[in-house]
């Protein structure tokens, strides 16, 4: 009981060392980030990062007929030759699960919304629950170039 009280006291003491200002965005003089700058906004999809072309997973073909599809944030992307991009995400085995995507492009951004779900052909099957790192190639109107690639919702 005494160690619990000591631990609680330590937590309270350490909690008083940080800023209580919810608008605090770090040290304006030095530009240093505060710990709260590193916390993602709840409910927002992660910002994907670019990876090399050798970082491929199990290939998924867009356009599958899906049951109970849901938006699935992708974790990384790869610019491919021409007007193509590969997005990398986690889903289930390709024997039971499929993926599809929509792309919205502007001069500044490429927003990809990936949806995954059970394949129509597997809706009455027993499927194993195992995570698979998947890759899906998509056609763009123009090369990625310097545009920012983002998750859609």
UniProtKB/TrEMBL annotation:
**Superkingdom of the organism of origin:** Bacteria
Q: What is this protein called?
A: Large secreted protein
UniProt source species = Rhodococcoides corynebacterioides
């Amino acid at each position: 009981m005494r160690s619990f009280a000591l631990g609680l006291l330590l937590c309270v003491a350490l909690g008083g060392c940080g800023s209580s200002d919810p608008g605090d965005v770090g040290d304006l003089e030095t530009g240093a980030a505060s710990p709260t700058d590193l916390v993602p906004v709840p409910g927002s999809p992660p910002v994907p990062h670019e990876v090399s072309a050798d970082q491929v997973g199990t290939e998924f073909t867009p356009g599958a007929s899906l049951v109970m599809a849901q938006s699935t944030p992708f974790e990384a992307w790869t610019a491919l030759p021409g007007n193509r991009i590969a997005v990398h995400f986690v889903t289930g085995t390709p024997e039971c699960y499929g993926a599809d995507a929509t792309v919205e492009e502007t001069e500044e951004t490429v927003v990809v919304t990936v949806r995954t779900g059970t394949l129509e052909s597997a809706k009455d099957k027993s499927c194993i629950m195992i995570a698979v790192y998947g890759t899906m190639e998509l056609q763009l109107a123009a090369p990625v170039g310097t545009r920012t690639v983002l998750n859609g919702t």
